[in-house]
Amino acid sequence: MAISMGGGETPMSDINTTPLVDVMLVLLIIFLIAVPVAIQTIEKLEIPVFESIESKNKVENLLLTVSTTDSSGRSAGEPGFEGASRGGECRVYFNNITPVTSEELYDRAFARLDAIVDAAGGAEAIMEDPERIPQVHIRGDTQAPWRCVAGAIYNVQAAGYPTVGFISNPVEPGI
Q1: pTM score, two decimals?
Q2: Which of 165, 136, 137, 144 is nearest to 44 (CA)?
Q3: What is the dihedral of CA 42, 67, 170, 137, to 10 degrees?
Q4: How far apart are CA 105 and CA 108, in angstroms?
Q5: What separation in angstroms does the CA of 92 have from each of 95, 105, 110, 130, 148?
Q6: pLDDT value, residue 154
Q7: What does the H/E/C string look like for 7-67?
C-alpha cells in the first residue's frame, strides 16, 4: 500500500480506518464489562426439593430470592460466598438481582404493582380477570431462617400482592 505525499492533482481515495478501529475497540470493551453484569444471578442457594406443580409464569410476576450472609458476613453473589448461614443477616434480592432492605422491598413492590394495575386500567379492570393479578414467587435458601422469609412475605403482602408462592427444585422421577 502506497502513501500519498501530496503534490499531485488527484484526490486521495484511501479510507481512513483508524476511527473505525477505535470505535470498535471501545464497543468491545463496553460489551466485555456490561455482559457479565447483565447476566448476574444469585448462586450457591440450596433450594428445597419437593413435588410442586408448574405455574403459568407471567412477566408481571415478582421474583424474590431470600438468603442470608455466610459466616464471614458475605452476601450471595459476592466473591467467596460460602452459602447461607442460619445466624446470618437476612438478604432479599428483588427480581433475583437487586439487594433490597425491608423498606425498599415494600416501596419497590408497591410501585411495581401500582404500575401494573394502572396499565390494566385500574383496580376494577384487573379484578375482573383474576389471572391478570401478578403473583410473588420466592426462592428461599434452605439455610435461610424463617424470620427472613416471613419478613419478605409480610412486605409484599402489605404492598398489595395477594398471592405468594415458593419456587422449589422438582423431585427427580423415580426417587
Answers
A1: 0.63
A2: 144
A3: -90
A4: 5
A5: 10, 8, 16, 27, 8
A6: 94
A7: CCCCCCCCCCCHHHHHHHHHHHHHHHHHHHHHCCCCCCCCCCECCCCCCCCCCCCEEEEEE
